[in-house]
């Protein structure tokens, strides 16, 4: 009986050690998934049935000089509204770009080094729908 309990405890210890390793692996997978390209953020709006058409990948030469995006994509949303999603190396760079686009009278939202912009012709409710679809995937 004593040997049976010892074997059971030893087996449980091995199982727990495996769980710890799996937890650290899933942590590194999360870190990798955070490094999405701007185009990847369009999956959420598409899955929710929001209009995403005329998708174009933008290069640094397509962007204003003070917008230092890592990746960027332009697309057309509801009511033919031009929109953009951009990723940045730092949140500070995303904030600088946001300030630029605010001065251009665009609706903007930034979080986790990602910036979403849309022309003001898009109503606030629609902007919120796209924002939630982009940032909650």
If you had to describe this structure to a student in words, what would you say it looks like?
The structure is a single chain. This protein has 137 residues and is α+β, with helices and mostly antiparallel strands. The protein has helices at residues 2-33, 43-47, 91-103, 124-135, and strands at 53-58, 71-76, 82-87, 106-111, 114-119. The longest helix is centred in the N-terminal third of the chain and has 32 residues, at 2-33. The protein has a five-stranded antiparallel β-sheet with strand order 1-2-3-5-4, sandwiched between helices. The model is unreliable at 4-34 (pLDDT under 50). It is built from four helices and five strands; from the N terminus they run H-H-E-E-E-H-E-E-H.
The parts where pLDDT drops under 50 for at least 5 residues are: 4-34
| Share of β-strand residues | 15-25%
Spatial order of the strands in the main sheet?
A: 1-2-3-5-4
Determine the structural class based on helices, strands and strand pairing: alpha+beta
Instruction: Give the overall shape.
Output: globular
In short:
With 137 residues, the protein is an alpha+beta fold. Helix content is 45%, strand content 22%. A hairpin with a 2-residue loop joins strand 4 (106-111) and strand 5 (114-119).
SSE inventory with pairings:
Layout: H1 2-33, H2 43-47, E1 53-58, E2 71-76, E3 82-87, H3 91-103, E4 106-111, E5 114-119, H4 124-135
Antiparallel strand pairs: 1-2, 2-3, 3-5, 4-5
